[in-house]
Amino acid sequence: MSFSDKLASLMARPGQDPNAKDDVPWWMRYAGRGLGTVGSIIAIFFGLANCLGIITINIDCLISGMWQMVAGFLVLCCEAPCCCMFIDYVQNLSEWVDRRPYWNKALAYVVLAIPAIILCPGISSIFGSGLIFTTGVIYGMMALGRKASAEEMRSAAAADNTVVAATPQPNTNMRSNLVANAQPVSFTGTPVFDSNV
């Protein structure tokens, strides 16, 4: 058993299928889960720091801090339910979120991160909610899937360059212009100004 297999068995959830159903690299899956866990804990602490804005009677920072703490807690419940074992139904929430497509998680994390930054654009909001935002970006990259191999890209480019002349269909070549018979703009010379006017 290799080191990555041992690490995967340690990080696996109860009842999780050991074989991945998608083609997302293992390191990206762990990066999303790890950054989500660590980033949400940091977001909770920085949200608490934002809540201290009540001392200076800054209500926006208080609301931003509370939002950031709730967002961090929700991400922590979804990414690391073992940290919230004392709350009922956290495991059910985490399993439900894991069954959703990656783009759903990406959109949810990005939407959760933005309001705290807008309400109180300080370093604690930007860093705390920025880690949640970055987790959403990682899940967005996972939703895009893997990049095609070099051979697949070459064959797609070669197939796109072939033009079928027999059929009078619109040109769908990736290098086609919007107007097929557009003429270049001609230059007529500099205008002459009459000084007698």
Give the amount of beta strand, in percent: under 5%
Q: What sequence of helices (H) and strands (E) makes up the elements? A: HHHHHHH
Give the terminus-to-terminus CA distance.
92 Å
Derived structural class: mainly alpha
Q: Determine Rg (CA atoms, Å).
A: 27 Å
The geometry reads as flat
**Largest sheet, if any?**
none
**Average predicted confidence as pLDDT:** 79
Q: Indicate the percent of residues in helices.
A: 55-70%
**Spans where pLDDT lies below 50 across 5 or more residues:** 163-167
Number of helices: 7
Question: What this model shows, in words?
Answer:
- This protein has 197 residues and is mostly helical.
- The chain has a domain at 35-144.
- It has seven helices and no strands.
- The chain has helices spanning 3-11, 26-51, 59-79, 90-99, 102-119, 123-144, 150-161.
- Helix 3 packs antiparallel against helix 5 and helix 5 runs antiparallel to helix 6 (123-144).
Record the SSE blueprint.
Layout: H1 3-11, H2 26-51, H3 59-79, H4 90-99, H5 102-119, H6 123-144, H7 150-161
Helix pairs in contact: 2-3, 2-6, 3-5, 3-6, 5-6
Explain briefly what this protein structure is.
The protein is mainly alpha-helical and 197 residues long. 60% of the residues lie in helices and 0% in strands.
